[in-house]
Prior knowledge:
Layout: H1 5-24, E1 44-47, E2 53-57, H2 60-86, H3 90-94, H4 98-110, H5 112-119, H6 125-142, H7 147-150, H8 152-157, H9 171-184, H10 189-202, H11 205-211, H12 236-245, H13 266-270, H14 276-291, E3 304-309, E4 320-327, E5 335-342, E6 352-358, E7 366-369, E8 372-378, E9 384-389, E10 391-392, E11 395-398, E12 401-404, E13 406-412, E14 420-426, E15 444-448, E16 454-465, H15 473-482, H16 486-493, E17 501-507, E18 512-517, E19 521-522, E20 537-538, E21 548-549, E22 557-559, E23 565-568, H17 587-599, H18 608-615, H19 621-632, H20 643-653, H21 668-685, H22 699-708, H23 729-748, H24 757-760, E24 762-763, H25 777-783, E25 788-789, E26 800-801, E27 813-815, E28 818-822, E29 830-832
Parallel strand pairs: 2-5, 9-20
Antiparallel strand pairs: 1-2, 3-4, 3-23, 4-27, 4-28, 5-6, 6-7, 7-8, 8-17, 9-16, 10-11, 11-12, 13-14, 15-16, 17-18, 18-22, 19-21, 24-25, 26-27, 28-29
Amino acid sequence: xxxxxxxxxxxVAILLIASLVTVRRPLPGYSGSVSVPGLSNEVTVIRxxxxxxxxxxxxxxxxxxxxxxxxxxxxxxxxxxxxxxTAGQLSELVGPNPTALASDKxxxxxxxxxxxxxxxxxxxGETRNYLxxxxxxxNGYLRDRSHSELSVSYVLLGTTVDLDQVEQxxxxxxxxxxxxxxxxxxxxxNQELGRARAYAAVGNIAMVNELYPxxxxxxxxxxxxxxxxxxxxQNSSVAAVRSATGSPAGSASDSTEQAxxxxxxxxxxxxxxxxxxxxxxxxxxxxxxxxxxxxxGVGESVGSNSWVVSGELTESGKPLLANDPHLAPSMPSIWYxxxxxxxxxxxxxxxxxxxxxxxxxxGIVIGHNAKIAWGMTNLTVDATDLxxxxxxxxxxxxxxxxxxxxxxxxxxxxxxxADEKFTVRSTEHxxxxxxxxxxxxAAGAVQPNQDGTPxxxxxxxxxxxAGSQPGRTxxxxxxxxxxxxxxxxxxxxxLVSAPGQSFVYADTQGHIGYQAVGRVPTRAxxxxxxxxxxxxxxxxxxxxxxxxxxxxxxxxxEFDPADGVIVAANQKVTPDSSLSQDWDYGYRxxxxxxxxxxxxxxxxxxxxxxxxxxxxxxxxxxxxxVLVPVLRSAPPSDVQATSSQRAFTAEAVRMLWxxxxxxxxxxxxxxxxxxxxxxxxxxxxxxxxxxxxAPDGGARTAQIMRGLLQQPNSPWWDDASTxxxxxxxxxxxxxxxxDARLELTAKLGKDPESWRWGDLHxxxxxxxxxxxxxxxxxARWLVNGDTLKLPGSSMTVDVGSWDAATGTYSVxxxxxxxxxxxxxxxxxxxxxx
Length: 833
């Protein structure tokens, strides 16, 4: 049968109408009034032109009820996906999917929901009441609504799986999302595993250490000196929670006597040799937690900016505070912007706060109230350790003594398929992550003999994580929303358990400050990685166990620094800080300091517009200071046979002579520079290190290259795929330029002046899980955002990270929101979500 053009158009029109009806049906109404069950007092919700809700109530129960109702109105599908992720039940929602199943297994092993259930009774009565009011509000919106009335995403999902009835929201659902955030920002886990995998590939500790260089001299730390401990008068509830929750996982017993360190650790590293693929599988399983819907990624190129300046440096005479967290892009945004306002602020109704929260969480995570403002960046503390364990059947060995493994059976429901059952096994350090995938069961295969020689065997791999202990972070968040000064601010933050974060502070009285928070384990010993947690640890020797945690009073803090500036951009906290060995390398922080100094030169005063200008800066300090001079002076490649081929590359290199070192989206030179950078990284490392282990082009890569460029004959320059030829620095740099010229000619055209960085550096925000590449085109069209051409890189203040090791330039992390708070006029503050 032949269908005419008119019939085709009619079918298309019907499909479009049906699509519009499907999309519009679940859209909430934003005008008028509604009576809802469980709400006894009137609440007013005012939305601005962007739909951001400001909520006004006479009591906090009504306030948080309304916050739950409004969040469900706007974002319930996102909340439901997060709930399934954090409970290890994503397969139950989306059906058979290897990534979802891997996510569920990892989350079940880490037991996020179980920890959240233990946290609930530790919280104050007020916090529990607020969580319940929030849940009641969510459920008030869900009442009598079908899937199709809640989100078009359910309609799309329902075409592939049978949807269960939507479950009621509970306080534990909110708390479990905090565990996801803590895991996502857990610190140096990737670096520790990266060292092990790199050693497995090259078998040389010195070469691995070159991949993890020390913090650069000359780049700023957050605090210029190591401050003295700042005691905090804690109330009984704070002391009680420390007692109730105990020391972090893997800590030593009450006895302070420890066995001596048992060896240099290189034998332990040998346990990983030959098993880099197994470790890669472990990393893939852990990353699946993020890939299945958790939008806050981790890795070398993830970071955030925050800074605060005192009123002495501002036009208004009051502080200015700026914050822009850099996270994996998502659709909708990871953040949910809102305001919570008691009509009359009092002891019985103390909230008047605005800013950003997460869908599914009551309160405000980042923002300001009527007296103080705060911003956050990841502290990147070392809160995790991998332990190699001697496991036989159902037992493991510690100090020569056999101990029984702790076990439990988990059942994962898979929509439309059979249940998946697996056993979670744990040592005193944590769960055996090597049990997640069969291929990881051989993650370690060497045991040190008494004389230090390696003996082949089998090790399992467990994970100790400070965030696995129940805490009171939810109490901290809601107390922070009410804090009115520096002392109350610190009292609230003393309750944070995980994740480790850097907080910047400002208040309407003119004060500024900084406070590091979160549980940080302490370690002792002298073996490789034993004292600082940089390498996998010997689980069979208790001297490698954690010895306790850093007291809150000893966490770095500063109040009203003399220079009136605090910049926290994931760099090292203090010159001698032992909280981690794996900081961001400070290039963004250095640029922010430079811009603040330039803008305050000759007594000029700062404005909110200056803060915004800094947030959008795309100047690449590393390019200007290090790499561009090298590329400009690189010798002609000896692989080019003709002068015309050399001229072909030189035509592109000439653009770097007049380049301003800014990675704007419309810059031809920026496109060529980034292509050269990408090819240089792959030429240097891809012959020996796989993707996921090889440097990815972030700040650590920059610091690695800064060192290697001073070593013309480093073994890293030699191409292992050409065993009869020993390449040097000049050859690899020259070849990278040739590669870049050929690559961009193929992708963007023969004329270098027509190239644009934004044509390579693109982002299409995706809704997980329905917006993924394997989803139908109609689904992707409905739920995903438009493709954007973006400036920047992981090295610029206005971040636009990408993974150079993969050979692609697609954006992996961006500024997830931008905030500038003016403490002279809070209503003049600016927000971009």
